[in-house]
Amino acid sequence: MNRKDFLKKLGGGAAFALTATCLGGCAVENINPDQPGNNAAIDFTLDLNAAGNSNLSNNGGYVIVNNQVVVARTTGGEYVAATRTCSHDPRKEVILRNGEWYCTAHGARFRLDGAGLNGNGRNGLTIYNTQLDGNMLRVFA
User: Fold this and answer.
1) What's the fold here for domain 39-140?
2) How many angstroms separate the CA atoms of 34 and 40, rounded?
3) CA dihedral in degrees (127, 132, 135, 136; nearest 10)?
4) Could you state, in order of their start, the residue ranges of all structural domains in the chain?
5) 3 state SS of 6
6) Element (H or E) spanning 9, and its range?
7) Which of 7, 9, 30, 116 suits 61 as a labelling partner, its CA being 20 to 30 A distant?
8) For residue range 76-107, what is the model confidence (pLDDT) as tens digits?
9) Which residues are within 8 A (CB) of 124 and not within 5 positions of it... i.e. 6 or more apart?
10) Is the pTM of this model over 0.85?
């Protein structure tokens, strides 16, 4: 039996259901930059005196915010921020390690400015702006 005969035998409703399922899996998601979780919506402030942010009082320390952003203090004492989502494989595993952004899932490495340092990091990493005002650190896109 060929495919045409099979689909005739199966019936139009079942064929539609199978086709809709297959095509739905290939759909492209539209991204609304105003929705939380998208890069354009990143704009928050951290109180550096808050207990949950105490890692930022040490050079080389970092905190994870809403599993979306990693905020860190470099070995030189500057504040930096990047997406947690690795560009190699969209897992939220990016941290600060040895003075660079590092994906714990598969070893992608990035400079602090987001440029890739190895094959898995070649697509770069989204970096956010930081602005310190007293004990308040603003992170924004």
Assistant:
1) Rieske Iron-sulfur Protein (2.102.10)
2) 7
3) -60
4) 1-30, 39-140
5) helix
6) helix 3-10
7) 116
8) 999 999 999 999 989 999 999 999 999 999 99
9) 87, 110, 114, 115, 116
10) no
Judge whether 130 and 139 are in contact, CB under 8 Å.
Answer: yes
Length of the chain: 141
Nearest to 109 by CA among 98, 121, 97, 99: 121
Q: How far apart are CA 117 and CA 86, in angstroms?
A: 13
Residues 6+ apart with CB under 8 A from 138: 43, 44, 45, 129, 130, 131, 132
Query: Tokens at residue 88, please?
Result: 């190699």
How far the first Cα of the chain sits from its last, in Å, is: 57
CA-CA distance, 62 to 80, in Å (whole number)?
9
**Residues 13-70: pLDDT tens digits?**
444 333 333 333 322 222 233 333 445 589 999 999 999 999 999 999 999 999 999 9
DSSP alpha helices (H): ranges in 11-67? 12-24
SS3 category, 119: helix
